[in-house]
Design brief:
29% helix, alpha+beta, single chain, 5-stranded antiparallel β-sheet, disordered C terminus, 7 strands
Length: 129
């Protein structure tokens, strides 16, 4: 019966050593997600649609039923997109991904227009059209 006490002290180190990596792994995605949420978009309008120089004729991709984050991420990671518009109409959501420069907004309820911003535009003066 004496061996069990000597065996129990050897158990805590193995269980203690794997715990730090999961901790750091769980905090880094959360931190990355928080940092990646709005790093490079300017909110141009909280109640308006995006407008480009050519009356929005075919210079965007339109996806229905996409979540805001999916729309945001798609616009963020594809370099050819200049910004996105997210609107909820009834029970449907619409994501417009723009390929041309967004020059202005048009007041429309339920829609938000986001423009990809340069590093200089991301300073204290966030709203610049």
């Amino acid at each position: 019966s004496p061996p069990p006490p000597s065996a129990s002290p050897s158990l805590p180190p193995p269980s203690g050593s794997p715990s730090p990596p999961p901790l750091s792994a769980s905090t880094s995605p959360a931190a990355a997600a928080a940092a990646a949420h709005h790093p490079s978009f300017q909110l141009l309008s909280t109640s308006g649609v995006c407008r480009t120089d050519d009356q929005n004729k075919g210079n965007f991709d339109e996806d229905w039923g996409m979540s805001y984050m999916a729309c945001h991420d798609k616009a963020l990671y594809a370099t050819y997109f200049t910004g996105f518009e997210y609107a909820v109409e009834g029970k449907k959501s619409r994501c417009k991904l723009f390929k041309g420069p967004i020059l202005s907004t048009l007041p429309v309820g339920g829609a938000r227009c986001y423009k990809k911003a340069s590093k200089t535009e991301l300073g204290p003066h966030k709203k610049r059209l």
